[in-house]
Amino acid sequence: MERVRTTAQLAFLKGHGTENDFVIVPDPDNTVDLPASAVAALCDRRAGIGGDGLLHVVRSAAHPEARTMAGEAEWFMDYRNADGSTVEMCGNGVRVFARYLQRAGLVEDGDIAVATRGGVKQVHLAKGDDGDITVSMGRAVLPEDGVTVTVGGRSWPARNVNMGNPHAVAFVEDLEHAGDLYTAPAFSPAAVYPTGVNVEFVVDRGERHVAMRVHERGAGETRSCGTGACAVAVAAARRDGVDPSVTGAPVTYTVDVLGGRLMITERPDGGIEMTGPAVIVAAGTIDADWWETALD
Ligand SMILES: N[C@@H](CCC[C@H](N)C(=O)O)C(=O)O
């Protein structure tokens, strides 16, 4: 099928989940050419639409990376970071992705499956409801690496948590200690994260209640990160001596992010569920001349 380079009818939407914001590009048949430079141009907050990332909405059967999941999930979330890099998974993004599918009438309310590079995720869409969405995020993997995160003159030990994408979770005394986060925190040993890492800084707010800031790989500091909140909840539970696979009881952490609140539950089988908002803000059409320059 011919790839779309010039189009007057390239549609986009803008959405967010706890202020982690995304440009949404519906492209069921995977005909839109989306090189990294064009994604970065769309996500640019001054010269483009602006977003922490981009949700390319494609039928799984039409995307080479998702074809094997087509039997399980009709739709593939081809997620890109704001710098154009291609990554495994976005927790806030998958809720916004599902909200788009719901609003566009492309799925029925109830449980839907969404294919991602991090595997198929189950998303629960309550009937006729714009409220919170719950996603089954899968299990966390916690390698026993001695990771250190450094910002400015300060260093902290961090927990390595993989939620399909990589995270380093550091418990700090004060979220301000993370500094302005204009640049990515340093980490060591470098070999633990060969493709970079999302870094979460965490403080306690109360019992099973924490707050975090995050520096996202490929995006900079964002106001929320869903996979990051899951990584934080699991790291906090282990630090607190709680492991549902041992106690046999689920545990829920409230995770406050700069853009709102996410509820994270870990079940005895290790499955993690995340609940939070998903909002469609606007819809429009990308200017054909601007798009030509973005593709050059
Ligand atoms: N904001 C997302 C995570 C997006 C991907 C991340 N920046 C990475 O490179 O792994 C979320 O809500 O999980």
UniProtKB/TrEMBL annotation:
Q: Name one GO cellular component term.
A: cytosol
| Keyword Kinase part of the UniProt annotation | no
Which top EC class applies here? isomerase
Coarse class of the primary localization is: cytoplasm
Catalysis performed (reactions): (2S,6S)-2,6-diaminopimelate = meso-2,6-diaminopimelate
Tell whether Cell cycle is among the UniProt keywords.
no
Q: Which Pfam families match?
A: DAP_epimerase (PF01678)
Gene3D superfamilies in UniProt: Diaminopimelate Epimerase, Chain A, domain 1
Please state where this protein is localized: Cytoplasm
Give start-end ranges for the coiled-coil region(s): none
Q: Which residues form the active site?
A: 90, 90 (proton donor), 225 (proton acceptor)
Site (Could be important to modulate the pK values of the two catalytic cysteine residues) at 167, 216
Q: Which SUPFAM superfamilies match?
A: Diaminopimelate epimerase-like
Molecular function terms from GO? diaminopimelate epimerase activity
* Pathway listed: Amino-acid biosynthesis; L-lysine biosynthesis via DAP pathway; DL-2,6-diaminopimelate from LL-2,6-diaminopimelate: step 1/1
Q: What keywords would UniProt list here?
A: Amino-acid biosynthesis, Cytoplasm, Isomerase, Lysine biosynthesis
Question: Where along the chain is substrate bound?
Answer: 20, 81, 91-92, 165, 198, 216-217, 226-227
Its EC number is 5.1.1.7
InterPro entries recorded for this chain? DAP_epimerase_AS, DAP_epimerase_DapF
Q: Which GO terms describe its biological process?
A: lysine biosynthetic process via diaminopimelate
Subunit arrangement? Homodimer.
PANTHER family per record? DIAMINOPIMELATE EPIMERASE (PTHR31689:SF0), DIAMINOPIMELATE EPIMERASE, CHLOROPLASTIC (PTHR31689)
Q: What does the protein in this record do? A: Catalyzes the stereoinversion of LL-2,6-diaminopimelate (L,L-DAP) to meso-diaminopimelate (meso-DAP), a precursor of L-lysine and an essential component of the bacterial peptidoglycan.
Record family assignment: Belongs to the diaminopimelate epimerase family.
Protein name in the entry: Diaminopimelate epimerase
Gene assigned in the entry: dapF
